[in-house]
Design goal:
This protein is of the alpha+beta class. The protein has 2 helices and 5 strands.
């Protein structure tokens, strides 16, 4: 059975990259980010629908245990697709000024691939 697990990543409050749009040309380094919340979503939803739903959740109805700021430009959502206990897909989405930018191909996770995600925060 498939499931989808998301992690919301946010930059630290003192980051110079905080709240920058994708077009600011600042390189995106996922290791500058902090995982602030993780949860599970309906596996039948497409990734952009998940991102849209999470934007509403993290701006209107913060879940218990959430300690980050309301979701905004420069935040990143990582969505892992699982089949059983195996992570079979991973996508990264940048919250831009208007909508979402798929940055999966821009994220360099080779350095610490196993540690960046597929873990419970």
């Amino acid at each position: 059975m498939k499931s989808k697990v998301y992690t919301l990543y946010q930059l630290p409050a003192n980051s110079k990259k905080l709240f920058r749009s994708y077009n600011s040309k600042s390189p995106i380094d996922i290791f500058d980010y902090v995982g602030v919340y993780q949860g599970e979503m309906d596996s039948e939803m497409n990734d952009i629908s998940i991102c849209d739903e999470l934007f509403e959740v993290f701006n209107i109805r913060h879940p218990n245990g959430f300690a980050g700021h309301s979701m905004s430009t420069s935040d990143v959502i990582c969505i892992d697709t699982f089949e059983g206990d195996s992570c079979v897909g991973r996508s990264f989405y940048y919250c831009d000024s208007f909508g979402w930018k798929d940055i999966t191909d821009e994220i360099e996770t080779e350095k610490k691939y196993d540690n960046i995600h597929c873990i419970v925060l």
